[in-house]
Amino acid sequence: MTTQQWNRRDWIKGVGALGAGTASAGWAGLALAQKPLSVGFIYVGPRDDYGYNQAHAEAAAMVRKMAGVKVVEEENVPETNAVQKTMQGMIAQDGATLLFPTSFGYFDPHILALAPKNPDVRFAHCGGLWDATKHPKNAGSFFGYIDEAQYLNGVVAGHTSKSKKLGFIAAKPIPQVLRNINAFTMGARSVDPTITTTVIFTGDWSMPVKEAEATNSLADQGVDVFTMHVDGPKVIVETAAKRGKFVCGYHASQAKLAPAAYLTGAEWNWITAYTQIIDAAKSGKPHPNFVRGGLKDGFVKSSPYGSSVGEAARKNAEDVRAKMMKGAFDIFAGEVKDNTGKVVIAKGKAYKQTDVELEGMNYLVEGVVGKV
Amino acid sequence: MAHGPRSWHAAAEAVLLPTGALAAALLAFGVFVWFGGYSPVETWTLLFRGAFGDAFSWQNTMQRAAPLMLTALAVALPARAGLTVIGGEGALVLGALGCAGLPYLMPLPEGTPGSALVLLAGAAFGAVWLALAGAMRQWRGVNETISSLLLGYIAIALFKHFVEGPMRDPASLNKPSTRPLAEGLRIGPIAPDSLLGDVHWGLVIGLVLCVVAGIWLSFTASGFALRIVGGNPRTARLVGLPTDRLVVAACAAGGACAGLAGAVEVAAVHTAANASVIAGLGYTGILVSFVARHNPWAIPPVALLFGGFAAAGSLLQRRLGLPDASVLVLQGFAFVFILAAEALRGRLFQLQMPTMARLRLVAPAGGAKA
User: pTM score, two decimals?
Assistant: First the structure.
C-alpha cells in the first residue's frame, strides 16, 4: 500500500518535473539575462483588512510593478510554526532571497530560528526589534515613527471636537501603543489644553466585538472624535460614523468606509522602506539592518483631509507638519507630566524620535483618561 | 452480486468512503476554482506538491499536524465517554502557561528530565481544566459543551493576565511574554540532518499518545467501561460502573493531551508563553476529532490531512495568488463530504444491487430491439 502510493507520487512528481523543465527551457535564456529578485511578503491577517496588513499589501502591490522583482505573498499566517514553514517554503519552493515577514510576532523566535540557517537570505522584519549585538546580520528590522502622524491626527481632532472629549481604542498597553496615545493627546491639547482623551484597551490586536462595544460606550460618554491602534480599524470607523461621530484613521486609509466622518489618518508608507531594502538586495550591498523614519523620510503619511475638516484645523496641522518636515519639531519635549501628575520628561529636555528612551514608554500623559 | 454484507465489506468501506469523499471534495474544489478563473489541474497539482510533493512538503505537513493530534485527543477521549467537550483551546493555553511557569517556581534539571517536568506541568494544568468541565457535569448538571467553551475563555483571560502581568519578562516590551525557557529545557528536532528536517519531538508524542489512547479504549477493562458509559450511562450505572469517576478521568486525560500540546508549542516552538500560542489549534482539534469519528487511531491520518491542507494552502496562495479563504473552502468541502459519506457506511455495497438489477432489466430490452 505504502510503496504503491510512493510510486504513484514519484510518477506524478516526475511528470510534473518534466513538464516544468520543458516549460522553463524556452525561458532559460531570458531568465539568465534578468535573474529577477524573488521577494516574499507574509501577513498575519487578511490583505484587505483596512488596516495593518492592508498597509503592507498596498506597498507590496507597488513592489510587484518594479522591474526585475518577483513577488510571492501569503496572508493569514499565524505567529506559530506556520510562519517558519511559510518562510522555508518561500525560500525552498519559490527561490525567495528577500523576505518581508511583516507581523511583529514573527521575529522572536521564528526569524531568529531561520536566519542563521539561511545565510544567503535577507530577512526584513517590520518592527523595531533587531539588535546589532545579538542578532544575525542577514536579519534586520524597519519601522516608522507614526506617532508624528498621530500628533497631526490629534491637532485635527482638537479643532473638530465640540465636546472636548476624544476617544482612543487601543489593543494593549505596550510602549508603541502608549506612544501613539500620548502623541495624539498632546496634538489635541496643543489646540485646547482642556481636551481629554479616554482610552479603552481591548486586550488584543483584533477584537471586532470589543472594539464596537468600546466605540459605542465612548460615544455614550460624549466622545465625538475617535482614533485607534488596533490591527483592523474598520469596525471602529464604521461604528463611530454610524453614531454620527468623527474618526481619525490608522495604518491605512479608511476614508472609503465613512467619507463624511473621516477627518484624516495616520498611514504607513512602507514602499519607502521596501525600496531601500530591495535596492540593497539587488545591488548586493549589505542588508540594511536598521531602517527607520518618520514623516520627513516618507515612512509615514497622513490621509487627505476629509470634507469635515475646517480651515483652521488644516492650517494648524500643516504648520506643524512643515516644522516636522524640517526636523524642527519634537513631540516629546519637557515639561511633560503623566496623568497622575508625575513629571516624566523634565523641563528643557527634548527627546528626538531616535532616542531609545521613548521605546520603553510606560506612562500616559496628562489629559489621558485611563490606566496602563 | 452481493446479497448481504461480506466479511471484506467493512474493510473496503473504511478505505473507499474517505478516499471517495476526498476525491469528490477535490473535484468540487476544482469546479470552484475554475469558476474563479483558475486552472483546476494546476490547482490540484499544487495542492499535491504543497502537501506531499517532496521532503520539505512532508515536513511542513507533519509539523502542522503534530499539535492537532493532541488537541483532537482532547475532544475524542471525552467523546467516547459520551461528552462533547470543545474547550481544548483553554486547556492548551493553560498548558503553555504551566510549561513556561514551572521554572518560576522551582529550579529544574537541564536536559530530558527537565523537559519532561515542564511538559508534565503543562499536561497537569490542562487535565485539571477539562476535568472541571467533567466534574461540573457529573455533580452539578452543567452542560459540558457550554461549560468547556466558557472555561476556554476564562483560561485565555487568565493566560493573558499572567503573561502580561505577574509573569511578564520585563525585556519583552512590545510583545508581552513570559521569561523564555532555558535552552536545556527546550525540545529539539527528532533528526535534524535527515529527511525529517526540523520536525520536532511533538510529532512523536502525538503519535504515541494516539496509539496509547486507542489501546486504552480497545484493549483494557477501564477503556471498555468508558465506552459503556458513553454508549449508555444508565446501563453503566446499573452494572455498577464508577460512571462519575470514568467521565472525569476521560475529561482529565483529554485535557492533559491538550495541555501537553500547549507545553510542546512553548518548549519546541515559541520558547516562551505569549499570545502567539493562542492560534486556534484547540478549535481545529474539534474538527479533526469529529472527522476521525473520535477514534484515536484515525486521528493521526486525519491530522496529517489537515496539516496537508494548511501546507498546500500556503503554496496555493504563493503560486496562484488565491486568497487564504480558498483553502477553507476546500476544507469545508472535504469535511462535508467525509461526514456525508458516513451515511453510506454499511450500505455502500448494498446500494449497488438495485442499480445493477435495473441495468440488467434495461440491457436485455435494448438488446432485443437491436
Answer: 0.85
| CA gyration radius, chain B | 24
Number of domains in chain A: 2
The answer to whether position A346 is within a domain reads yes
**Mean pLDDT confidence for B340-362:** 70
Q: What is the pLDDT of residues B140-174, one digit of tens each?
A: 999 999 999 999 999 999 999 999 999 999 888 88
Q: Please tell me whether residues A131 and A172 are part of one structural domain.
A: no
> Which residues in chain A have their CB less than 8 angstroms from residue B161's CB?
none
Contacts of B275 in chain A (CB under 8 A): 105, 204
Give the pairing of strands A343-345 and A69-74.
Answer: unpaired
Beta strands A225-229; A196-201: pairing state: unpaired
Q: Do A89 and B56 touch (CB under 8 A)?
A: yes
DSSP state of A286: P
Enter the ipTM.
Answer: 0.83
Angle at B267 between CA B264 and CA B273, to 5 degrees: 95
Q: What DSSP element (H or E) covers B319? A: helix B299-320
Gap between the Cα atoms of A343 and A366, Å rounded: 10
Q: Does A94 touch chain B (CB under 8 A)?
A: yes
Boundary-marking domain end, from A93, A126, A144: A144
Residue A65 lies in domain: 32-144
Give residue-wise pLDDT tens across range B215-239.
Answer: 999 999 999 999 999 999 999 999 9
H helix intervals, B141-242: 144-164, 202-219, 221-231, 233-238
Give Cα B3 distance to the centre of its chain.
Answer: 38
Strands A300-302 and A262-268, bridge-based pairing: antiparallel
Above 60 in pLDDT, residue A23? no
